[in-house]
Each structure stands twice: as structure tokens, then as C-alpha cells.
Specification:
elongated, single chain, 4 helices
């Protein structure tokens, strides 16, 4: 996790204000569809816009994809039986893996500790 500048400094206040005017977009090489973009916006809103750069934006886009995947799988699993041919529905395991990926990406971005 990167060290944060003190928010009460004039330079940091100006940096954050300048970044807030710019919209944070996913990197061009990480295409997100219309179901994933709301998750990306939600993730980006967890930090000041000026703090998002490079690799963090890639990880935020991957996190948005994983979060959208969890939402899709939860909706599908709601409509399917818990067991398929006497075994636990494989979608349930896939959902657990995606939830784990979401938590790992949040930790990687340092989002798990924000607001605490």
C-alpha cells in the first residue's frame, strides 16, 4: 500500500481537487461491458480520483469484472437447484471462487481497510 500524503496540506488538497475534475475511466486495454461499468464506478468512488493510476486501474477493472460475475452467478444460482444429478451445483463452487477473487483484489488495492 502506498503512503498517503496528509490531506490537510495545501498541495495535497490541490492535487485531490484537480483529480476530482477528471473522470476516471478503465484502461483502454481492459474492455468492460455495460454490466461491469457500474461496478467499476463503485470501486473508483472508494478513493479520491487523483489516487487512481496505472496498475491500480487495471486491478479495479478486474475487480469490477469479478463483482459483475458474482452478481450474474448469484442470479443464476437463485434459479437453479442446489444439487445437480445428486452433486452440489458446480456454479456454487465457481461463485465461491469469484467471491474469493473479489476479496483478493480488494486487498491488493488496499480497499479492504478504507473507512475503518
Amino acid at each position: 500500500m502506498t503512503n498517503r500524503n496528509r490531506i490537510d496540506s495545501t498541495a495535497e488538497t490541490l492535487r485531490i481537487a484537480a483529480g476530482a475534475k477528471e473522470g476516471v475511466e478503465p484502461p483502454a486495454h481492459v474492455a468492460l461491458d455495460e454490466t461491469e461499468l457500474p461496478f467499476f464506478r463503485s470501486v473508483i468512488a472508494e478513493r479520491p480520483a487523483a489516487d487512481w493510476q496505472g496498475h491500480d486501474l487495471e486491478a479495479a477493472a478486474m475487480l469490477a469484472r469479478a463483482m459483475a460475475g458474482v452478481a450474474r452467478m448469484q442470479a443464476a444460482l437463485f434459479l437453479e437447484p442446489v444439487t445437480v444429478e445428486g452433486k452440489i451445483n458446480p456454479l456454487k463452487q465457481l461463485l465461491a471462487e469469484h467471491r474469493t477473487m473479489v476479496m483478493q483484489l480488494r486487498r491488493s488495492l488496499g480497499l479492504h481497510a478504507l473507512g475503518a
